[in-house]
Amino acid sequence: MSPANNGLMTVGKTETGVKVYFDNDFIRGFLGADNAHERLMMGNIITSLLDMKDEWVHAILDELMPLGQAKMILMMEASNSPLSFPLWLPPPIFIHRASSQLMLDLFPQWMKDKGSDITDKLTMTAQKEEFLHNGVDVLLEKLNLQVKEFESHSLLMKLIGNLETLFYLREHNKMLHPAQIICFGDNTEKRKEFFETERQLSEAGLATRALIEYVSATQVAARQEQAGSDDIESMLAIMSEIIHIGGICDAIHFGISDHTIEKLPSERYGIYDDDFNDNVVGFVSARSIEIVNNQIEDFGSRMEHLAILQPKTTDNNSNLDEIDEAFLADWGVSYSDILQLLYSCYLLAMKQKCSVVELPEKEFIKAIIEICPELSEAAIEKSLKHLTLEKRTEYLTPPEGMSPKEIYPWIYNRELSYLRRPIVRWQMCDGANLIYGFRSCLSAGMQLADLLYSGRLKYVGKKLKKLLGKFEAAKGTAFNKEVRRWLQEHTALKVWDYDVPMKPQGAFAASEDLGDIDVLAYDGIKNVVYSIECKNTNTAKNVREMKKEMDDYLGRDGKTKKALVMKHLRRHQWMIDNIGIVKNFIGTKTNPTVKSILLTSKVIPTSYLRKKDTPLPILNFQELRRKGVDYLD
């Protein structure tokens, strides 16, 4: 048989079919982005079964298994993607519909018991906010009673284990879902299935993280009874409703929604805003489609990366010294040391052969130094200050110097989130143990890098603040170049290779500084000039981020001068008023039509929640790449 990479495959015909043997070298051939090795395998099997000529076998394969990315066997080098490797995982605990419905049935009685029930429809914003605040308090009290029923240390271990499983499933699906679409074809029902799976994982993951934070902060006295899966699911359902109600309260408070709140004939509470819900569903659907499409596009490069047996270890980050210097100045420990510690946590888990690790703090430090001698005890201790969750006097009382917003689980990018602090310091009689899941540590490293390079890292000093501004500017410049390059390579538009200034003595000599046009493009056939403002966006993940995004794009409380859309609208109006100058600059004989656009790198909520209020279209680059230049019209 034809070997691959010196591998061996033997096929022996039997009475009922064939018996196939692979050696390890042959099996490694299934790594990679295409199905060439699967075709080789099936060709050998067909030849053995049917004794066909090679050209006939190739014809069958070309018709039924054409060479491409339609892989049926997905393999990877585990060290390249430890998040998606199924090691030492408990069965997942999700929030089933029955648990959510039961909680919604009980919630009105809980409110009534505390004197917070309502009988009529609430009409005033203050009434709605008070009701929702009371709802969060009542649910937290019920959660506290349930947590106190069980031995909290083992509860924490189970919760961290559950999150490890959910991390694995989400990461695994990034490989599985695009592979299924490529293999079996794209269809609406399959995508709906993917979206529902992702919704369940997101809901359970967010509630599990928040419950880990709660148990870590309270660390109630030890009980004997162990929490089972049903008990944990009940707690997750309560936490999920806390997150849901908190988000609605923020939406009402910031004027993003006008939810109706009333008592229904069923005795449940009706909390709804159809317009808001429809717009959010539209955004979530568009974002989900965008994510799956990106996974399909990236499938080949992802599988190629996962096939590398010995990945490169050299660090090409030219900014690393500057980053380390800034972290040392502001946090007292380098960025490199923090990432080294998080990665060493993963290596320690591999050594102990478990997903969730618990060690006395001194033993943990010693074990980390054995794995990574470059880390000093002082560097580990300083890193832990930024990576650990600890017991607090009260759950709702943040540590000194931090805002209460760092506690609320419905807010994203919180300093006290388990996503940022994946190590729990658990108080023992004779000291403290450190507890963590290795996937959570690896994810925290990626989260820290994302916050750093996107300019969203909080609680920083002067050095890091300056560095964040630099990275944010570089991100914007890179996106401008990416858009220009795509338009040049995929359209017939004439594209200027630079930001076109609109200011005194600029290319467009405005009487005042109106900024730059990020991307200027011209369609000679339609005689249309496109003025494109590019924004390399971070997708808003909750109501507060949506509010900030809408304020950034459209202004706040009638103050629109600095709003991004209004700034570009002023540039648009200048081009309309000075169309002769535009015509001469473009080099056309007749006045062109001017179309001004805001182009975001990802789909954003503002384009759905405030669509009626935007005087210029807000489009996104992902759709432009898929729909082509006509999308700009």
Mean pLDDT: 90
Q: C-alpha Rg, in Å?
A: 28 Å
Separation, N- and C-terminal Cα atoms? 56 Å
The side-by-side strand order for the widest beta sheet comes to 9-12-13-14-15
Class from helix and strand fractions:
alpha+beta
Estimate what percentage of residues fall within beta strands: 5-15%
- Distinct helical segment count: 20
As residue ranges, the low-confidence spans are: 311-315
Approximate shape: globular
Largest sheet: 5 strands, mixed
Overall number of strands: 15
Can you give the helix content as a percent range?
Answer: 40-55%
Descriptive overview:
- The protein is an alpha+beta fold.
- It has 20 helices and 15 strands.
- It has a five-stranded mixed sheet, with helices on both faces. A four-stranded mixed sheet has the order 5-8-7-6. It has a two-stranded antiparallel sheet with strand order 1-2.
- Strand 7 (423-428) and strand 8 (431-437) form a beta hairpin.
- The model is unreliable at 311-315 (pLDDT under 50).
What structural keywords apply?
633 residues, alpha+beta, five-stranded mixed beta sheet, four-stranded mixed beta sheet, 20 helices, 53% helix
Short note summarizing the structure:
It contains 20 helices and 15 strands.
List the helices and strands and how they pair.
Blueprint lengths: L8 E5 L4 E5 L1 H5 L7 H15 L3 H11 L32 H17 L11 H24 L3 H33 L3 H31 L10 H25 L6 E4 L5 E4 L1 H33 L13 H12 L3 H18 L3 E5 H11 L5 H9 L2 E2 L33 E6 L2 E7 H16 L8 H29 L3 E2 L4 E2 L14 E2 L1 E5 L4 E8 L7 H12 L9 H14 L1 H8 L6 E8 L5 H4 L8 E3 H7 L6
Parallel strand pairs: 6-7, 13-14, 14-15
Antiparallel strand pairs: 1-2, 3-4, 5-8, 7-8, 9-12, 10-11, 12-13
Helix pairs in contact: 2-3, 5-8, 6-7, 6-9, 7-8, 10-15, 11-14, 17-18
